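ugh ok fine here u go
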Amino acid sequence: MNKNAIVVILAGIWLSGSAAAQQGSAPPLPPDVNPVTLTRLPQLTRDDLDEEGKAVYDEIVGDGPVPTTGPVAMSLYSPKVALAFHDLNSFLRYNGDLSPRHTEVAICVAAFEIKQQYEYSAHEPAALRYGAPQEVIDTIKYDREPVGLSPEETVIIKVGRQIMREHKLDSDLYAEAVRLFGRKGLVELVTVMGDYVMVGMVLTAIDQHLPPNRPALLPTP
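structure:
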């Protein structure tokens, strides 16, 4: 997949939200949340960046829409972080060993485990588009036991849950993951989850809200 195609796909998933999207009914925002970015950070434009930052902006955003909400918008506050995020995500999601379907399932597992609504609500539709069955999505979002799923998706869910809940990966589950994905695939699987936990933590820190035109797909207590 060429670089321009990657940017377009990332823009579709990550760069959602605009001033126009804020119109319509929505719960009132907390007083420290900006009504344009829907975070605690004000809008950042290319002109706000130094020359190094502008070069990073051009590398990531190019001629695409100005990022208003989501990971790209917040990461550009630290352009080198933004570039690192971009390069890692582009490799893991489009050039790694995992299929797009399994990558998106892994992202959903990570987003669920840290209860990151913005991130989860972006990637559940992507997982479904890439062919993940609704049963897999429901197992993740309703915290069900992975019964009757494919061996690969069963292992993805179990690996993510065990690492993030028990802070370990037992020998049998490790061996099964290596059997299904290979050693390289296992490293990339866990890195995908860690990547989205990292991004999700920043989204949580800045209190990223969903635009009113995007439904919240992660169940809340």
